[in-house]
Specification:
By secondary structure, the chain is α/β, with parallel strands linked by helices. The protein is about 25% helix and about 35% strand. The protein is globular and about 55 Å long. InterPro entries: SAM-dependent_MTases_sf.
Length: about 260
């Protein structure tokens, strides 16, 4: 008797294996949203964002983005938390933060308007989640400029020292930035300017694609009282091996 092969879901059969959903010119390059299917790796659609020819992120690898939110929110003190996420991307850090009922308000600072539009227009899966959650608001602008107080800080309507947590996922690492101009953020004066927007017990958490960096940890210690790097491990199906990232969690702003 012949063995019946499992049938692919109808919604998958109707979709092409690869689709470029949108591509828009920006001041920093062409930003592109794509969707692909790789049945040998996963049954889910894979969403990808590219800037020119550089891959920025893939929905195939979200463990570290989710860990950034979990670790940052867990370290924060109290309820009714006011949180800023630096960098929207495909939205996994933001969505994970919103799963906490301790989060009262969340602002996502994103440089590129097309990325915000993809979520508002629900061209990416998590767009509907954000559109239905009144706690979530988008701020179009440079995180690095706003974090240093220019022109009005990360959240214009809040007074100084009001944020409970800032979660950052933009550059690959402090030593591997997307643009040379971003490097100035990873210096004591810039980090101190950002920290002044946090409550005294506030938390700054940041993702890095590199292993823990002692020099950067020392730099954070100049600004925060408690700094812990967390190694986040996850399976990489392309390599058929384990990969890892780092999430730095810094808490307690030094006077």
């Amino acid at each position: 008797m012949a063995t019946r092969q499992p049938q692919e879901p109808e919604e998958h059969r109707l979709k092409p294996m690869f689709e470029q959903i949108d591509s828009q010119p920006t001041d920093i390059g062409e930003i592109t949203l794509r969707r692909r299917r790789i049945p040998d790796l996963t049954s889910n659609d894979i969403y990808e964002i590219k800037l020119d020819e550089e891959f920025l992120m893939s929905s195939l690898f979200v463990t570290a983005e989710e860990a950034l939110a979990d670790l940052g929110i867990q370290a924060a003190t109290g309820d009714r938390l006011k949180v800023v996420v630096g960098g929207l991307g495909l939205g996994h850090t933001t969505a994970t933060a919103l799963q906490s009922d301790r989060v009262e308000s969340l602002w996502v600072v994103e440089l590129l308007q097309p990325v915000i539009d993809w979520h508002r227009d629900e061209k990416v899966p998590l767009g509907a989640v954000f559109n239905q959650d009144a706690r979530c608001r988008f701020v179009q602008g440079s995180f690095f400029e706003l974090a240093q107080g220019r022109p009005h800080g990360l959240v214009a309507e809040l007074p100084p020292a009001s944020l409970d947590a800032i979660l950052l996922d933009i550059d690959h690492s402090p030593g591997d930035v997307l643009f040379a101009s971003n490097s100035g953020f990873y210096e004591p004066q810039s980090l101190q300017a950002m920290a002044r927007q946090l409550t005294p017990d506030g938390v700054f958490a940041m993702w890095s694609n590199d292993p823990p960096d002692a020099a950067f940890q020392d730099l954070l210690t100049e600004v925060f009282q408690d700094v812990t790097p967390h190694t986040v491990r996850f399976y990489n199906p392309f390599m058929n091996a384990e990969s890892s990232s780092t999430v730095y969690v810094a808490k307690g702003v030094r006077p």
